[in-house]
Amino acid sequence: MPIQAQLCRSDQLVDCPSPHELRRSLLPPQRRYRVALPTARWPRVRAVNSAPELSVNAGARLRAARWATRAQFSALGFSAGIWGVHIPAVKAHYGLSESGLSMVLLAIAVGAVLCLTWAGKIVAALGARLVVLLAGLVICAALALVVNVNSMFALIPLMLAFGGANGLFDVSINAEGTVLEAQSGKRVMSNFHGMYSVGGMVGAGVGALLIAADVPPALQLAGLGAVLAMLVAAASVFMLPVHPKDPEHRSTNSLPRGALAVMGVLAAVGLLAEGAMYDWSVLYMQTETAAPPALAALGYASFSAAMAATRFVGDTLRAHMSAQRLMAASGALAAAAMATALLVRDPIVALVGFALVGIGFANVVPILFIGATKVPGVAPAAAIATVSSVGYLGFVVGPPLVGGIAHSLSLSWALGVVVIGGLLLAWGARRIPA
Question: Which of 17, 62, 351, 367 sits between 20 and 30 A of 127, alpha carbons compared?
Answer without folding.
Answer: 367
